[in-house]
Specification:
The chain is mostly helical. 52% of the residues lie in helices and 3% in strands. The protein is built from 4 helices and 2 strands; from the N terminus they run H-H-H-E-E-H. It has helices at 4-57, 63-70, 74-83, 139-147; strands at 109-110, 116-117. A two-stranded antiparallel ribbon has the order 1-2. A hairpin with a 5-residue loop joins strand 1 (109-110) and strand 2. Helix 1 crosses helix 3.
Amino acid sequence: MATSEEIQRRVEQADTARSVKRSAVAQQVGELAQRRAVLAGQLDDVERELGDVLAEASDVMDIDELARFTDIPAPDLTGWLTARKPLRTRRNKPSGGVQGGTSRGSAAARTTNGQTATPLPGRRADAIDVPHGGAGMTPLDRAVRTAVPNPPGPALT
């Protein structure tokens, strides 16, 4: 039978080996997460640059023609173009209470072509269908749209 001192030594040995493994795993995860953050930033920069180039090229070439030449799907090109964030300009905030005659939102959602979108029967009122199979949506928008179904139950109006 092991003595108390031998038991303590064995426990410490096992704890040391486990601590070394835990430390290595934590370091590896931290390094990979840091690398991922850098790559995500680079990807954002590339996608922004793609959107800028596509916007500048729109006067000499349309998306469909560019898709034929590059073998890049038109929805991907359109997604990069529409995801592009234009430079923001400063606007003066209205002074006083009521804003001008324009409204920022409305009861009905609007599609990318300015038409009023209405929900399909059996769907929530804020769930709209984008025309043309989602053209103009970014790949992320399409993924979210297909990954997050409407909840079951009656449609909200």
